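[User] I wish I could look at a protein chain and see how it folds. I have put the entry right below:
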Amino acid sequence: MDEQKTTQTAPLSQDFLDILRCPVAVHYKDKGADPGRLRLARGNSWLVCDDSGYKYPIVDGIPRMLVEIGEKYKDVPEEALPVPPPED
């Protein structure tokens, strides 16, 4: 019997999501008192920051929140983000 790799990512806990911030937008002074908040998108496979536009993949349940990765997907429309995200 062949085993298939599961591609669905378990959602991040709400407590964890509440403390995560976009490493770029957290420094913005013109986005209110709590800039850089993130929201889940694309079936819990991506974190999106509406303040900066950066998008961070969640791979194997781990958010990949390097600035270079978020910037890479900044101009990709949300509906075009790959699911599952690439592991690069």
